[in-house]
Amino acid sequence: MSKKKPKKWKEVERLVAEAFKSPDVTVQKNVLLKALRRKGSVGGYREIDILVTGKLAGQLVTFAIECKDYTKKIGSPEIDSFIGKLHDVGLPTQTSIFVSTSGFSKPAIGRADEVGMKTLILDKRNNEKTKEAIITAIQAKVFLLCSIHQISIISKIEDPYNNVKFYNSKKQYVGALPDFLWQTWLKGDVPLTCGEHIIEVQIPEEFLYLEDGEKSSINKIVTIFKVSALVYMSKSKAISFGLINALSGIEEKKTINFHFSDKDSTQVPIHIKNEELLKKTTSDADVSITFSRIQLPKIEMNYGLLWPPSDKMFEYLKEIHENSEIKQEHIINSPNSFWEFNESYKNNLKRIIALRNTGKTS
Description:
The longest helix is centred in the last third of the chain and has 15 residues, at 343-357. The chain has helices at 8-20, 76-89, 106-114, 177-186, 275-283, 311-323, 328-332, 343-357, and strands at 25-34, 45-56, 59-68, 96-100, 118-123, 134-155, 165-167, 173-176, 195-201, 218-245, 251-265, 270-272, 287-290, 294-300, 306-307. It is elongated and about 100 Å long. The two termini are 61 Å apart. By secondary structure, it is of the alpha+beta class. It has a domain at 8-123: 3-Layer(aba) Sandwich (Trna Endonuclease, Chain: A, domain 1). The strands form 2 sheets. Strands 1, 2, 3, 4, 5, 6, 9, 10, 11, 12, 13, 14 and 15 form a 13-stranded mixed beta sheet that branches. The protein has a two-stranded antiparallel ribbon with strand order 7-8. It contains 8 helices and 15 strands.
């Protein structure tokens, strides 16, 4: 059963009410107020299309708004009728607003100005052919993926790559090189923009020891981090409308209403490696809403292995390694997950997040 389309004047009331919505005001539609001087049209009541109530300099102020969706301009009789209604319910004309979709005649604008009434034209950016002003809108959720492209280790020995496990002076294991690469990413030391970033990875001095307690020969670790974006897109239709002061011709309020639908969303993300292309993709519309870039909580190592691996992944890799050399197809078919962490890595992740929130990076 299809829903009935709202009457045009009802839609106008809805749009105007939306334009005046604000956290510090109350907006009511179709409010019946008791007539003070005569019986009124509905059992002694008069109907105000929109009533906006809020505080101005500590005093409660009420704005009564009349909405008309006529094919011709509003004339003086309509203005006088609204003035009479306001007098009937005891509302001031000085804080009243008359909204029209078709504009006002010059005498009507003059009459309204005499009593302090504001006249506004609802500009829906449309004409009778298009019915509504529809503009393209895009909602984008951007996840940032970091992968390790190259690692250069400067050391006193010829082959330092065998010494990428780190200990303290008490011969206690503190982590492998991928752990520090992961922390570098999560701490925010890598720019959150697509492309390659050359970063010197900092290993704390107290962790630069070997398993036997000897001082490590590593002087510097320089890594190329590659940042790319996984973008989920939702397309939308948006209605743009404004309220134009009929007396001055100046636009006083502009509102854009969005409606996003899950069926218009991409279930598979778009993988973007270039910052310029990312900006174009997420803003290639009349209006775009892009959520803050979200860092995925792991880094990508060789063959797409995510670090840190989960317990499941460790067990899987151990089993594969016992029988053959680990290859890319093994990673593809593995329990490789962005969201599973060992308990120790969970605690480390919480610590890193806490450091980021306090503005510290080490």
